[in-house]
Specification:
Diaminopimelate Epimerase, Chain A, domain 1; alpha+beta; 292 residues; 18-stranded mixed beta sheet
């Protein structure tokens, strides 16, 4: 089984081409395969697996599986990698505006690609759609949390000893603006605990954020089903939305993470969040099967 290793600011994926090899479509939701491929000692090593297949209403269908075999839901970094894969291999041709349409779950993402000197994709801007800020739809069981406090237009909830704003970008996020440096947070302990808090029926992606200015933040992310990652695209979107609603941030923000920076904008007219950043191919290989 052939694969390609890719990443967006260090958030890395094993990409499987079910367009060229349709038989791989049957493996798109295989948790055992995802766990085997993503194992960093016994497999290829990745935060998740992306399977690209044909779709009648879009340029391609993208399925994302987390490293633990669970459904990844939405994935901004992965969408940029998918666009690069599709264009570089001739599976899709951008329209007159330089865009592709990629189906991911219930959404069809519009992805504007950026071409480099050799005609290969070097980055992309993904229209991530409108955020969901109603806690019940994130989803969060607010009955298991103390009554919220207001901060700007946002509701901030106390979760254990932290204050969080909840946002869904197609997957659930808890954004925690903190005073101590994000580098000092014991994210393996706090992230793991908050991910599986009883108020989060679908678990939670957890982000610790320092607002350095209204236009730039530093962030570390603990992703459900993965652990700490070097970057989280949907988390960057959630951080902007939470910060704007709290009055901490403007509507255009640079989000700096351990693997690099992403540019995020929340468009007033459409209400959609736009995510921009690089996409990188690392290597190609062939999977012999291992224990999957």
């Amino acid at each position: 089984m052939r694969f390609v290793k890719m990443h967006g600011i260090g958030n890395d994926y094993v990409v499987l081409d079910a367009i060229a090899e349709p038989a791989l479509t049957t493996r798109a939701g295989d948790p055992a395969l995802a766990r085997a491929l993503c194992d960093r000692r016994l497999g290829v090593g990745a935060d998740g697996v992306i399977v690209l297949s044909t779709d009648r209403g879009a340029d391609a269908r993208m399925t994302i599986i987390n490293a633990d075999g669970s459904d990844g839901g939405m994935c901004g970094n992965g969408a940029r990698c998918a666009a690069k894969f599709l264009v570089d291999r001739g599976h899709a041709v951008p329209d007159a505006e330089g865009c592709l349409m990629i189906r991911l779950g219930a959404r069809v993402l519009r992805v504007a690609v950026e071409l480099g000197a050799h005609g290969l994709v070097v980055g992309a801007t993904v229209d991530m759609g409108a955020p969901i800020v109603d806690p019940a739809r994130v989803p969060v069981d607010v009955g298991r949390l103390p009554p919220p406090a207001r901060a700007g237009e946002a509701r901030q909830f106390t979760v254990d000893d932290r204050r969080a704003v909840f946002v869904s970008m197609g997957n659930p996020h808890a954004v925690l603006f903190i005073d101590e440096r994000v580098e000092s947070v014991d994210i393996a302990r706090e992230g793991a605990r908050l991910e599986r808090h009883g108020a989060f029926p679908d678990r939670m992606n957890v982000h610790f954020v320092n607002a350095d200015s209204r236009a730039e933040v530093r962030m570390r992310s603990w992703e459900r089903g993965v652990g700490e990652t070097m970057g989280c695209g949907t988390g960057a979107c959630a951080a902007l939305v939470a910060g704007a609603l709290c009055g901490r941030l403007g509507r255009e923000v640079r989000v700096c993470m351990p693997g690099g920076a992403l540019e995020v904008a929340w468009d007033r007219s459409s209400g959609h969040v736009l995510l921009s950043g690089p996409a990188t191919e690392v290597f190609q290989g062939e999977w012999s099967g291992g224990n999957a």
